[in-house]
Specification:
Elements lengths: L6 H16 L6 E2 H8 L13 H14 L2 E5 L6 E5 L1 H5 L3 H13 L4 H7 L10 H14 L2 E4 L9 E4 L16 H4 L18 H28 L3
Antiparallel strand pairs: 1-3, 2-3, 4-5
């Protein structure tokens, strides 16, 4: 078994936490329910298409890590699975919620984390509470902080339970003087603003689409509660 968890293991554990928090009536999850949760097109970045064997293999590895275990549902013969993240990592509910959202949606700002954990039990009262939890997770080596990109107001945070070797850290922007030719004429014109890459724009649009779908779901639940 690799020393570091892979992307499938991270997705599997994140889904188990999410479903425990948002749909406790169907938790623990069967293998098929967990596969469907992993392959959701909403609240996921990236969107994947795992088969049952892929998920089953990941469950075996996470069980060896002490992150998950096989269990049985009440009155059900189906094999079901639960996560053991609080016990395995010695973290509290707030830390579990932050890690789960980072597992499922990649690097995010504190504002995004506050919004996206509102679906989970507890939630956060304000951004200060989110930042406090992030600092604890950074201190434990479970999360890293990305430097702000040009034009961004907030720093972004990413979980590294699978190791940080593959994390794409944002390089420091070189000073303008180091970009100018040594003997060339000096150009006093302001530099053109950096244009977002196609990948960044695609990721932004995907996040907006997922947020819109979340909002539609909440509106539907509200209408049902009001008896419409």
């Amino acid at each position: 078994m690799p020393a570091e968890a892979d992307a499938v293991e991270i997705r599997v554990v994140g889904c188990l936490v999410e479903k425990q928090r948002t749909t406790p009536d169907v938790y623990p999850l069967s293998l098929n329910a967990l596969r469907l949760a992993c392959n959701q097109s909403t609240n996921r970045d990236p969107v994947v298409d795992y088969d049952e064997q892929t998920v089953s293999d990941a469950l075996r590895r996470t069980a060896l890590r002490g992150w998950t275990r096989l269990t049985s549902g009440a009155g059900s013969r189906a094999r079901k699975y639960r996560h053991l993240l609080p016990e395995a990592l010695s973290i509290d509910d707030a830390e579990v919620n932050i890690l789960a959202v980072l597992m499922l949606r990649g690097a995010q700002t504190p504002g995004e984390l506050k919004q996206r954990t509102e679906r989970y039990s507890g939630g956060f009262a304000d951004l200060a509470a989110v930042n406090e939890v992030l600092e604890r997770l950074i201190g434990r080596g479970f999360v890293i902080r990305h430097p702000r990109r040009p034009g961004q107001k907030e720093e972004r945070y990413e979980q590294v339970l699978g190791g940080d070797d593959a994390v794409d850290l944002v390089p420091d922007v070189p000073a303008r003087s180091s970009l100018a030719p040594a003997d060339g004429p000096h150009d006093d014109r302001p530099a053109a603003p950096a244009q977002p890459s196609v990948a960044d724009e695609t990721a932004r649009l995907d996040r907006l689409e997922a947020d819109l779908l979340d909002l539609k779901g909440e509106i539907t639940k509200l209408r049902e509660a009001l008896g419409e």
